Amino acid sequence: IAQKKNNAFQLHINKATSPITIDGAMAEESWHNAETAGDFFMVLPMDTSHATVPTDVRMTYDDNHIYILVTCWLTRSGTYMVESLRRDFAFGRNDNFIFFIDPFDDRTNGFTFGANAAGAQWDGMLYDGGRADLSWDNKWVSAVKNYDDKWIFEAAIPFKSIRYKKGITNWGINFSRLDIRVAEKSAWAPVPRQFPTASLAYTGNLVWDAAPPDPGANI
After folding, report:
1. d(CA 49, CA 149)
2. What pLDDT is recorded for position 216?
3. Nearest to 123 by CA among 76, 170, 89
4. Contact 50/57 with Cβ under 8 angstroms?
5. How many beta carbons lie within 10 A of that of residue 202, not counting itself?
6. Which phi and psi angles does 207 have, rounded to 5°?
7. Which residues pair with 99 in a beta bridge?
8. Tell me: the pLDDT tens digits for 156-176?
9. In 10 A of CB 46, how many CB atoms?
């Protein structure tokens, strides 16, 4: 396959150095040791500059789970915009953070997980290069905690709830943030405004320090 457009965007994921509690707080040593993906690019309304609302993403893993902790900083005080507490909420009507993984690194199929600012979960399967089938629901744990200057999304996704190729240490990944109050959609690896942020052609790379544990059968 030709080299992908955002190949230079890399987030290194290393094995956790301490146990992780999913509570929306960045308390654990593992999070302080994790590399940060930040400095997002604006997708909407314009795709020509960096985002005005900062977002920081950290990832780690252990033998059973992939962990993610996201700090969604706020530039305006006041309440967040949330229209629904149901799973797989309407993307455009909720302040949210969603990420997209391409564990085969083939830009065709993958998975999406995320939450809105009130903690409602979002998950689905990606197909056709970035279309989401939200009828796919799986078991994973997350927490959202609201602070004065930010909201934090923290999640644990069991390896056995997703499929991936044995031995592959480079997954496609991208992170997307929607802040309705400042009318801004942003992504870590830049995505042209005419494409959805789920588009796997524009993912960056999640680089593992070692091959993830053998996927085994998802039963």
Report:
1. 23
2. 66
3. 89
4. no
5. 26
6. -105, 115
7. 113, 175
8. 999 999 999 889 999 999 999
9. 9
